[in-house]
Amino acid sequence: MPNEQSNIVGHHYVQPNLRKNGAIMSNWTRICTLEDIPRQGSRVVESDSGRIALFRTHDNEVFALADRCPHKGGPLSQGIVCGCKVTCPLHNWNIHLADGKAIAPDEGQTATYPVKLEGGAVFIQL
Questions:
Q1: What is the CA radius of gyration of the chain?
Q2: Whether residue 12 has pLDDT greater than 80
Q3: Distance between CA atoms of residues 60 and 16, nearest Å
Q4: SS3 category, 25
Q5: Which of the listed residues 53, 61, 85, 125 has the most CB atoms within 10 Å of its CB?
């Protein structure tokens, strides 16, 4: 369940997937508007599976990744967005926003989540 802190600016709590006859039903959850995510910045979403970072590029593309660098677990949401990558604030690893993979020579990957934009609203699929 969300706590008082999940209502602060930049955070949003997402309910878990619904179950029907024991199977998990994927659903799209509206998170915010595109304008709520700063250009070349991020917004954090709290979910039952952990923190998810929504990133917006200069060209208004939006990506969702687990807010955890594959190297040492640094908060990617606090990194610098440049093009279609984010730089981890702890050790400068570069993570590709589209697939969550570390850019060579580094190796590793963080989880990604499907994102869609509809009428200026940002949705993620959990």
A1: 14
A2: no
A3: 27
A4: strand
A5: 53
